[in-house]
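User: Hi! I'm a student and our assignment asks us to look at how structure tokens line up with a sequence. Could you show me two examples?

Assistant: Happy to help. In each example below, the sequence comes first and the structure tokens follow. Example one:
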Amino acid sequence: MTAALQAAAGISGPVVLDCPKGRYHFYVDEATRAPYYISNTTSETENPDVTKTIGILLKGLHNFTLEGNGSLFIFHGKQTMILLDGCSNVELRNLHTDYYRPTVTEMTITSGGTHSFDTEVHPDSRYEIRDGRLVWIGEGWSFTEGPMQTYDPVRNTTWRMDNWLEQATSVEELEPMKLRLHFDFHPEVVPGHVLQNRDGIRDQVGVFITGSSNVTFTDVGLHFLHGLGVVGQFSENLTFRRMDLSPRPETGRTVAGFADFIHMSSCRGKVTVADGYFAGSHDDPVNVHGTYLRIVEQPAPNEVKVRFMHHQTYGFLAFHPGDEIEFVRSRSLISYAKGKVVAVDFLNPRELLLTLSDPAPEGIGSHDVIENVTWTAEVEVVNNHFARVPTRGVLVTSRRKVVIANNTFERMHMNAVLVAVDAESWYESGKVEDVTITGNRFVECGSGEHPVIFIAPENVDVDESAPVHQGIIITGNRFELKDTLALSAKSASGLVFQSNEIVSDGGDGGVLSSLDEAIVLTACSGVDIVGNTLTAE
């Protein structure tokens, strides 16, 4: 593969790397190793070495197509399967990828006792028992602790939970691949549920796209993604069409993603996710955002030193000469000045010095942040099916046009759609100005305090006359509610909730008697709620 890619790089003009249909294996001892800082992955403490182990490196390729012809690429050990760096006009198509030994392990509960329960370990998971403790073993990796979640095959849903293995007093092997977990209390379990376990360290990603433009994935199945999923970072015009991000049926596995599926950080142009199937993640299927950096010093009138604040995001150039920026109050999340970057000095992996074309504004607050508004994307998420998700379905914070249309969201454990933005926790920017959510079917999404659609900027200073978000239109959707809200919105103006069908069985809260019970608004203005229907089932 490496030789073929080198040959392709030497050809001027469009080139197709045609892989005869088959099963290809990629091993870490033959992989490329190179350092890459990737947004939303790991901190310096969690993973001091940012070197990535790369199965297929596409670097500096232009007008290039990787034709898989339906092949299956199997990756061994912890790898970033595919990495695109500085590429343009690249398409990957008709390809399936998987891991030989996935880093999320699975075991099915077979029976429960007074102080124990029995499980059967999936054939693709391996283990050892050391001093009564279960140790998961893979190709070059092992772990004993980490996040766990449960999959219910009857309702086709997953949720996060405390790790049973960390609470067990001992683990006993009844026979190969069959275990009994012992406790000093009564574990309430359901036979048939699947326990999924991982170590939580995102040391690699599934696919990384950086500094690239016009990249398209067509008819590609990514059947397991280690670490973070498909990450786009400072890239332009990324299209994901007819993607299958779910376990291969023949494996009998229930997990396809260690964390997010498609995660776009500071991209521009247009991000398109269309006609795909997304099932079995451990975090959000689609997340599109930028990154706020905090202003920590002003060495000169036209200079500001900025810092990456979240522990898992740092190390990359978040600004470039010519980029337009906005100064944002951390407490209100309202921008109060604009600027243009003329020079960027990389001081260290956490800090950058920006030289601006004009003096910075007066009165910069101690926690104020800067958003790079040049690197914000138009987003289109259409005709997809999302299922078996323990968190949210689609997260988006971009000021460009956003369309979320004709998707099915099946039992997201939290929100189906989240529009957040914050400058004190994840530092994921920024405001939205033109969002249309239409034609979607929301099947029993949300739970309790998690509404189906959540407009939730994390501003502390809340003023109805100074909204964070605006121009959100929610129309023509079907909400199949069960004990939760259809919509909760805060600090939004120009919000339209129109011609939606709300079907409620009420769950534990009883059947809804009016639309007012399905919607909660806080500090919103210019709201138009009209033409909706409410029925009970």
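Example two works the same way, sequence first and then tokens:
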Amino acid sequence: MKSNTLKSIKNFLLLIPITLFFLFSNCQKEYTPLSIQDELILNVEKANQKTAAFLEIAKKSDDGKKIQHAFIQARLSYKKIEWAVEYFAPDPARFINGPALDELEVAEHTFLPPSGFQVIEELIYPTYSKENKTDLVKEIKVLNANFKQIKQHLSAITISDSHILDASKMELNRILALGITGFDSPIALNSIPEAIVSLESLKTLLFKLNYKNPKSDNCKEQIAQNLTQATAFCKKNPDFITFDRAFFIKKYLNKISQNLVVFQKINDIKNTNKTSVVNPNATTIFQKDAFNVNAFIPSDEYQFSEAKALLGKELFYENLLSDNKTRSCASCHDPEKAFTDGLKTNQTLAGLHLERNTPTLTYAAFQNAQFWDMRQLDLEKQSLDVIQNKDEMHGDIKAAITIITKDKKYQNLFQKAFPDSNKIEEWQVQNALASYIRSLNTFDSKFDNYMRGDSDDFTEEEKLGFNLFAGKAKCATCHFIPLFNGTVPPAYQKTEQEVIGTPADKTGLKLSPDLGRYKMYPMAQLKNAFKTPSLRNVAKTAPYMHNGVYNTLEDVVDFYNKGGGIGLGISVENQTLPSDKLELKPNEVKALVVFMKTLTDKEYQP
């Protein structure tokens, strides 16, 4: 009996190492790091669960604080996956965290109503009313369904390291242009805590990129340190109003961007060519070569070249393009005035006043639509529109070509610009003029030099002005950094219009009668809607607004400070500009104007 007992004990002891081996093996298997895609899917599911929890609270509770807290938790969970959702599924992403405005399909004369976090935000902030419960529950259900769709989509795609690097760069630019500016948290102003989550998600991504060499390891460690410092700064300075964006971008975001490019080069990670507007090799979004003008051309034969721009410059001053041979493009777009005319509105050929103010042509290349009413999609069509317009030039390109063809100077210029062509054609004239306009982007303002580290010449008042522009004053939610126009980052595939309620005159008593984009596309949302113009060189392009109603930048800031047309007491049913007063103090108004003057290119500076 004793012998059998000892034998059993001995056999049991022999089994212990085997059992421990299997236990250890199972533990090891359990803690194997998830792939980027697997972890992404897991985080999508977590976001879905947070949204489901938010839904239950919205159904059962009327406690505004509890509902707002659940909302914040759900959107923070989205910020963890934002880099992937916005990159791989931009269309459904628009209905998860896009602006609370109708998505217009103007060509089809239809629209899709908004949905997602920003719509929900308007229902529960600044205070929640139980009268909104039905709408709130409905919107959260739609959001929940969108997350399920996103999960299916992200489960089916292939995610390469090239995609990861490209998406990370885009997410950085999104944080810079849409995150810390309050674009996607316009009422709750939870932008800085949300930026923390977005940055931490990039850090997680980085450590999953498995490249083993000393240079790569050192660079990865540097990026991780940059990200840690950036999130620490946000945690220490979470207040939206007082957040120092100028410091944050220069000190942290730019360095992260620079090091991501270095990391990509060290490891020979190829570019994806998924995003054509931003140069993937540009170290920051503020570099002179960061933006590609060819991303906005109609088709490949319209590619920019210096030879085309040189020809276009000659044609820009050519009176032959007008009916009476007395007017050229330069007649209304004076280079000394940053390609404007300094007039409230210009005159027709008959000496009557035109309806609209002459916009600058500088940086016009970075827009997906031209003219105040956005009636043309590219600069080629814009040039033809002006030349043929009976009030502006009333010209005939074909007739001008018959004369130009006989001119040896033009013969040489056209041959250099279009070497594969045997004759001068109408589209070439348009393309040459457009190419000249595409050359009017120097990115050498005081602001540019400061942001990319070429100069430290930026006063405290100018920094305050920038921080107001990108923060409290909310200018950057429509005039996106760094182009300062309405072309939406970080993909830059769409240029926005706004309804701000511009008055007919300085009394501010009635709305401008100009219906804007509505004339071309009679949709209620577009009544009195105008393209968001570039603010680059804005100090040189007065008067302001589509009708030239304001003569100074101080006048313009005052208009926005009061809440646009509605703030002036005008009835504007479809105003897209928030009508709340900005509560800017006199020193803040002054700083804002001082900052905008730093957007003047070197050529136009005194």
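Here is something you could point out in your write-up. The first strand starts at residue 103 and ends at 105.
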